[in-house]
Amino acid sequence: MFKFLTFFLLFSQFINQSANAKAHHTGTLSGVTIGARYSSLFEKRGVIFYNDFQIDPAITLFMFDDRLEFWGDTLSYRDFVYEDKIRLRGRVSSISDNPLFPAHDSVRSNQPDRPNTFEFSTAAEFFFPGYNDNYQWELDLTYSKDFSRHYGNYAEALGKIKLTEFYWPLVNKKIEPNLVLGAGIGDKAHNKYYYGPNDEATSMTDYAAGIWLAFPDEADRFFPIIQVMYFAVNGDHRNAQYAKNNNQGYLASFIYTVRLLD
Asked: What pTM, to 2 d.p., does this model score?
């Protein structure tokens, strides 16, 4: 995985000469933000990990013209490789089903205790007709590989369509509402970890639909600053041991941060 990540970084640096998307901030240390994220529940890939609200710290460090990000439990590198139309992203994440705050035993009592693990993801993000001022829609294709516990594989397609844009005087920001549609597919090892040890299928695992509000002048469109989503586990995966009774719902979340370094 280290060799692949090194190749990814070098490849991005080699071909980004043709990219002309603007970074939000520039410099070796290009930004530091601190804040919090509120989520109405804790969900991943269609299955509910913790069925109560969560408040997580949102501390982010940006480096190298916002290309390198440290966000919570994730290290990410992203760069445009063709104008402002195609961007590659590599990400290493810690995976856990343990809630942070609050963490009530009464909510956790009937939930599985999955072992913590790590995952590497690589993504290609396509912007139409481009990321900058003419942005209308995008398609993100992501492949994820566990490299610590179950070694399973997962692939996801996520589409976003900009519905409109407007200026909100109350917060003094430009806002873009987006219609978001997504679906994923996992192999047997991945699905046993997420949905239960009796899940034997390799097939489409989950889907989601909803609205994201992007603040493009303040944060990268990758981050759903405000979102309301419906999510569900798909097909026979819904009846697997961990997913049963935890296989669909609505998620509302928002992120509030203050920039310490601009």
From this structure: 0.89
